[in-house]
């Protein structure tokens, strides 16, 4: 330490003009010289660090290995960056830790071995780097999510196009076949055969109309271009129309049982929405139920809701897939052989929920399903 006292004017001249901290330690790893930047950096008074062990300004958790590292460094007597590839922290007098970067330079002077460290506070750099890394990570996450969504969208478009192609091709082929056969039945006594094909054509046209209405509903829902007309109307009107149209789709010996206690029931709701939802539920029940089965429509008046349930004896929904049943384009694995777009339930649920109503269900595979429309009792008309 006397060496640096003896040459203090030279050391001060060289060190005080440098903004980085300069620390000189001897072979015993005691601090023999500092500049004012070091004292300010670590929170000490002038010359307060002189004579103290180097560990004074190093966090305690590093003490065990640090002395060995410094001794090994002095023995090799070569310049290097301290802590390269590792986080290096300094310890202020008040106990606060902060990130530092230190360049080490061993040297011989008057027969003694010393190490001079040039110490830089890199808090701002670390903070900037952390912010940059966080920003890059966030941008990467956003990009990854965007790519996943784009991939899902492309897959959805592919499935949609395949679905549309299939759903339109089948009924159109049936219509074409029926029209072709109709032209062959010219005799009067063949009227029943003609009627059979006319019924088939009507049913397939109705099916195509339903598909188109579903696709148009999706477009309107996605674009927000949906206008609802909340008004009074008799429930029997909707039920009768829906059942009449559904009768064309019934399989042999399928029957629809609908309530006879609704003649005086008046609802305040959007008539088209209820008709769409009820039609979808009834068509699904017909499609996924076997021949010789009964489909029931049940109406109940409850405290806050009026409920309309459609109950069938169909194939049911596998329990592990029930949570996806209202997802757009989803079709349960046991329904893949039946025609369908997988959007009807999604559309019905969205329209109902937009009006404060609900659509719930219970189902057991191989036993049947019950879908229930819950309509609030206190809705008020929006038309005069």
Q: What is the topological layout?
A:
Layout: H1 2-6, H2 8-15, E1 21-26, E2 31-34, H3 36-42, H4 63-76, E3 80-82, E4 89-91, E5 97-109, E6 112-121, H5 123-182, H6 191-223, E7 230-234, H7 235-246, E8 255-257, E9 266-270, H8 271-287, E10 294-301, E11 305-311, H9 344-354, E12 358-364, E13 368-376
Report on the structure:
- The chain is an alpha+beta fold and 384 residues long.
- It is built from nine helices and 13 strands.
- Strands 1, 2, 3, 4, 5 and 6 form a six-stranded antiparallel sheet that branches. Strands 8-10-11-13-12 form a five-stranded mixed sheet, covered by helices on one side.
- β12 and β13 (368-376) form a beta hairpin.
- α5 runs antiparallel to α6 (191-223), α6 crosses α9 (344-354) and α7 (235-246) packs parallel to α8.
- It is elongated.
- The termini are far apart.
Concise structural overview:
This protein is an alpha+beta fold. The protein is 43% helix and 22% strand.
Shape, per Cα inertia axes: elongated
Report the radius of gyration as a whole number of Å.
41 Å
- Mean residue pLDDT: 82
The count of β-strands is 13
* Amount of beta strand: 15-25%
* Helical stretch tally: 9
């Amino acid at each position: 330490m006397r060496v640096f006292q003896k040459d203090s004017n030279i050391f001060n001249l060289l060190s005080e003009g440098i903004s980085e901290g300069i620390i000189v330690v001897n072979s015993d790893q005691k601090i023999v010289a500092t500049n004012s930047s070091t004292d300010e950096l670590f929170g000490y008074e002038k010359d307060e660090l002189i004579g103290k062990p180097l560990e004074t300004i190093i966090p305690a958790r590093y003490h065990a290995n640090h002395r060995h590292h410094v001794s090994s460094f002095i023995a090799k007597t070569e310049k290097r960056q301290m802590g390269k590839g590792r986080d290096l922290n300094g310890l202020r007098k008040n106990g606060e830790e902060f990130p530092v970067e230190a360049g080490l330079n061993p040297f011989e002077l008057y027969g003694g071995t010393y190490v001079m460290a040039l110490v830089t506070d890199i808090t701002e750099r670390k903070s900037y780097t952390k912010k940059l890394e966080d920003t890059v990570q966030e941008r990467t996450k956003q990009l990854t999510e965007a790519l996943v969504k784009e991939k899902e969208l492309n897959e959805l478009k592919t499935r949609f196009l395949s679905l549309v192609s299939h759903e339109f091709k089948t009924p159109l082929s049936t219509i074409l076949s029926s029209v072709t056969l109709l032209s062959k039945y010219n005799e009067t006594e063949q009227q029943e055969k003609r009627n059979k094909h006319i019924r088939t054509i009507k049913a397939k046209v109705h099916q195509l109309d339903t598909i188109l209405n579903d696709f148009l509903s999706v477009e309107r829902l996605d674009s927000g271009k949906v206008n609802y007309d909340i008004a009074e109307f008799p429930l029997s009107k909707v039920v009768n129309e829906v059942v009449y149209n559904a009768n064309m789709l019934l399989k042999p010996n399928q029957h629809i049982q609908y309530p006879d206690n609704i003649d005086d029931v008046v609802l305040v709701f959007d008539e088209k929405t209820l008709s769409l939802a009820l039609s979808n539920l009834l068509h699904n029940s017909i499609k996924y139920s076997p021949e010789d089965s009964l489909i029931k429509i049940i109406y109940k008046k409850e405290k806050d809701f009026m409920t309309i349930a459609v109950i069938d004896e169909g194939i049911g929904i596998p329990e592990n897939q029930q949570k996806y049943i209202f997802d757009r384009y989803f079709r349960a694995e046991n329904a893949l052989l039946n025609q369908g777009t997988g959007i009807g339930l999604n559309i019905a649920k969205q329209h109902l929920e937009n009006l404060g109503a609900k659509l719930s269900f219970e189902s057991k595979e191989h036993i049947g399903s019950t879908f229930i429309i819950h309509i609030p009792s206190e809705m008020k008309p929006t038309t005069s």
